[in-house]
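QA checklist item 7 of 12: single-chain prediction sanity check.
[x] sequence parsed
[x] length recorded as 209
[x] structure emitted
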Amino acid sequence: MKNCLLIVSIILLSFTNSAQTDFAPTGSFKVELGLPNIATNNAYRELMQGLVVVTPSYQHTFDNTFSIGGGLRYSYFNVNQFKNNAGISGGMHMTGVFGKIGVEKFYGNFGVDYGIRIGYAMNLSTTNAIQDSIGGPYISDGGFVEPTLGLSLMSTENSSFRLALSYAFHAFIFKPEHIGLEDFSGLNPDKLDALSTYFTIGFGYSYYF
């Protein structure tokens, strides 16, 4: 018990000492890797499963903690072969660019970075059914808006690791043609017109210049 108290005391003392000087970021390169979880549109949620979201970006933070940035975004959603009876396999690639505005502030070695990404994405669906019908990917596009939150911890004087959370709203409605079907049989049609949204939880790395 005494050893545990000693360890906790040392950690608290270290945090107190490090918190005396807040880190003030300026330019930084960031990359995030996350797992997307589909939230809305019954067909999208039932027939697809998120596998990965990768987001490299650059961000500049001003003296007043206001930040602006921009970057690239790639995500991949796989067709859930256990929830379709048409033998469909493959998935949807979503590639895009975005700009970001937000706030980034550190409290000692602990940082908070929150904001909103606004961008444009192109979607390439590559399932076996689409390949058979049109001989190539089915292409769609649309804008997206994504509130984000990052909780960072400095690892060195110019780098940090973070827990990254976000919720993306894509301006496209998931349709049967996105995976090569003619219709969504067995799904409630009243819940198929919702925007395609998903929640992402992941980890990130930042390098500060």
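[x] summary fact logged: The longest strand covers residues 138-156.
[ ] second reviewer sign-off
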